[in-house]
UniProtKB/TrEMBL annotation:
Protein name, per record: VOC family protein
InterPro entries named in the record: Glyas_Bleomycin-R_OHBP_Dase (IPR029068), Glyas_Fos-R_dOase_dom (IPR004360), PhnB-like (IPR028973)
Species this chain originates from: Streptomyces tanashiensis
Start and end residues of each Glyoxalase/fosfomycin resistance/dioxygenase domain: 5-131
Organism phylogeny: Bacteria, Bacillati, Actinomycetota, Actinomycetes, Kitasatosporales
Length: 140
């Protein structure tokens, strides 16, 4: 699977209806993961909020979105990030080093609770980037 580049939108609690609407517009397959699914005991009021949503369409569009985590600000106008993801760890780590090198790292590139290696940074131009290295074992 080649690496992909796509927009990632942050919402203030309405990621689910927004993604459902975009699915009506573009069609495709919608996958939604809640904060509760990855630690319900710690999620509290955010248990039903979207930690990660992804719409993949037959036209090869990919749109990702999430509700901002509890305690983090939602900044309309600055609520779109760019996600780079795939399985080529060397390629994605090179992107990460260049993007984060002169920027600010908010989430270090490291193994996450969902199993992938993920990091988030803001480059020197103020653009937020998310890099996800898929480490899931292929199905047998």
């Amino acid at each position: 699977m080649p690496s992909r580049l796509n927009p990632y939108i942050s919402f203030d609690g309405d990621a689910r209806p927004a993604l459902e609407f975009y699915k009506e517009v573009f069609g495709g397959t919608l996958t939604l993961n809640t904060y509760g699914a990855f630690g319900e005991d710690k999620a509290g009021d955010a248990a039903d909020k979207i930690m990660h949503g992804m719409l993949e369409t037959d036209s090869d569009f990919t749109l990702m979105a999430a509700d901002v985590p509890p305690g983090m600000p939602h900044n309309p106008g600055n609520n779109i990030s760019v996600s780079v993801s795939g399985e080529d760890a060397d390629e994605l780590r090179r992107y990460w080093e260049k993007l984060s090198g002169s920027g600010t790292v908010s989430v270090p590139l490291d193994k996450q609770m969902w199993g992938d290696v993920f990091g988030m940074c803001t480059d020197r131009f103020g653009i937020t980037w998310m890099v996800n290295i898929n480490t899931a074992e292929p199905a047998a």
